[in-house]
Amino acid sequence: MNKSRQKELTRWLKQQSVISQRWLNISRLLGFVSGILIIAQAWFMARILQHMIMENIPREALLLPFTLLVLTFLLRAWVVWLRERVGYHAGQHIRFAIRRQVLDRLQQAGPAWIQGKPAGSWATLVLEQIDDMHDYYARYLPQMALAVSVPLLIVVAIFPSNWAAALILLGTAP
């Protein structure tokens, strides 16, 4: 496939995301919240290790930080689960709309045009190829936004404690 055709198809795929933009935005937001929770988990673990190793505080005195760490793990698991559900709903909604567009186009073309290809190829197009688009909308598009926002969030979280490390991370971010 040549580059111009590939760009045209990519543009068409992105245009179809407008169909379920609200669900995709919710998926992106949940991914961002998951990123915040990852940073919170790392912070709680670092604090616990600092207290236990550097300050020799007994484990019994660290019940609250351990509890907060476990709650953060549980909350993050719930957010990731919810993000998967929302992403699935977005992909399902978009696949339904694309399938409807294809069927409407086939109906407009008429039976004479449809008979130009075997019935199996039309079934493959309507069922399998459209279903193959699901992961693009449910996972790939939301992840593209997170690939930029989460590293910046990590840099913002690290900057107050170590500006040199934050600059290194900023320079090596995707």
TrEMBL record:
Its main location: membrane. Keywords: Membrane, Transmembrane, Transmembrane helix. The chain crosses the membrane at residues 29-49, 61-81, 144-170. It holds the Pfam family ABC_membrane. It comes from the Bacteria. It is found in: Cell membrane. This is ABC transmembrane type-1 domain-containing protein.
